[in-house]
Specification:
Number of helices: 7
CATH topology of the domain at 39-191 and 290-372: Rossmann fold
Radius of gyration: 25 Å
Distance between the termini: 65 Å
Structural class: alpha/beta
Length: 373
């Protein structure tokens, strides 16, 4: 019996150690399987702050970089609550893949949103995600579309979707939807590059109508600039679309530089282009690069929309280009536009140039949603 006692004590201590190790392993497992952040929320200044949902997801103009910075400006300086959404492969939640066109998690945030800012390009989202966008628009809530939002969605013939009419090239039985979301909601869908892409920039000039809206408060001619070229729109524009900024096509004064963020273009370039690379006259008429509009989708209420095609992540480093968008936020929300909105950048903002990137880039980059906090 005396010999058994030490053995029993050892067995008891061993069992306690095993149980402790099992709990440690279990705890570690819980930590490693925690769901990564798939969207970002920046709280507003007040409990009942207006809620803005910013939707990124384009392959070229780096909306995954610009939308978080815009959200920070709107939250930090103006007190709005902002939710930023990103394109992701569902197999890798929390990892941004701008090339993945069939998934933007978090769109249910639109269910209690006061404003949608969208900067997507040729997305073909599943029905359960598109429904949130459709429900939002049926309520006639305000919309801001940036750059490629004129062609925000596109569905192939083989895609199974109840929302094909949102597609940029839609030309089906629902005649009101011809030209898709861009045409019906924003007033224009994809037409073409008006300026020479990567060689001719956009310089904005304020229209008389723009001065009456407040959207151009503290914005003078030339303050809005984008290295992203002028998009062509069909004139006259449809519905009650009202140009706010006209874009002059500007020639690059320096040499083309593929390693430069602006490809060698500068806001100080002062030569107005007469033709683009195709020999087309781009000097007249001037194309609207920012406009307002009233929209109404079938079965829905009327709403306000603002569109600016003078936009990319690197162009968001230009103060006047930022101010145009922030002013438009106030206008779309029916709030008085400040005389001079605070558009100071928040934290570190290091955007990269606009370009298409291969799938391998995103696989190797492993850019996380949480990286933009």
């Amino acid at each position: 019996m005396k010999n058994l006692l030490p053995i029993l004590i050892c067995l008891f201590m061993f069992a306690c150690k095993e149980q402790k190790e099992a709990k440690t392993t279990e705890t570690a497992t819980v930590v490693t399987t925690e769901t990564p952040e798939q969207w970002l929320t920046f709280e507003g200044g007040e409990k009942n702050a207006k809620h803005i949902v910013l939707i990124s997801g384009d392959e070229e103009y780096r909306s995954e970089e610009s939308m978080p910075q815009l959200a920070k400006i709107l939250s930090e300086h103006h007190g709005f609550k902002c939710t930023v959404l990103f394109a992701q492969n569902p197999a890798h939640p929390g990892v941004i893949d701008a090339n993945y066109g069939k998934n933007i998690p978090g769109l249910e945030a639109l269910d209690n949103a006061d404003l949608m800012i969208i900067a997507t390009r040729f997305r073909a989202l599943p029905d359960d995600q598109m429904k949130h966008i459709d429900d939002y628009l049926l309520q006639g809530k305000p919309v801001i579309g940036l750059r490629t939002a004129t062609h925000a969605f596109n569905f192939n013939d083989g895609d199974v979707s109840s929302y094909k009419h949102y597609g940029n090239s839609y030309n089906g039985e629902m005649k009101e939807w011809e030209g898709g979301f861009g045409k019906l909601v924003l007033g224009e869908n994809w037409v073409s590059h008006h300026g020479h892409h990567r060689h001719q920039s956009t310089k904005g000039f304020v229209t008389d109508a723009g001065k009456t809206t407040g959207i151009t408060n503290s914005i003078a001619d030339g303050d809005v600039w984008a290295s992203a070229d002028v998009y062509e729109v069909r004139l006259p524009m449809s519905g009650d679309s009202q140009p706010i900024i006209y874009g002059k096509v500007m020639n690059r004064k320096g040499e083309y530089d593929e390693n430069d963020l602006f490809y060698g273009m500068r806001p100080t370039d002062d030569e107005v282009a007469k033709t683009n690379d195709a020999g087309k006259d781009v000097s007249a008429p001037l194309m609207p690069v920012a406009w307002t509009r009233t929209y109404q989708i079938p079965g829905g209420k009327q709403g306000k929309a603002f569109t600016s095609t003078a936009f990319s992540a690197i162009d968001f480093t230009i103060e006047g280009t930022r101010r145009l968008v922030v002013n438009a936020v106030y206008w779309t929300l029916d709030l008085p536009v400040p005389a001079k909105t605070n558009v100071e950048l928040v934290g570190t903002y290091s955007p990269t140039t606009y370009e298409f990137r291969k799938d391998e880039y995103w696989e190797e980059k492993q850019l996380k949603v949480s990286d933009f906090k």
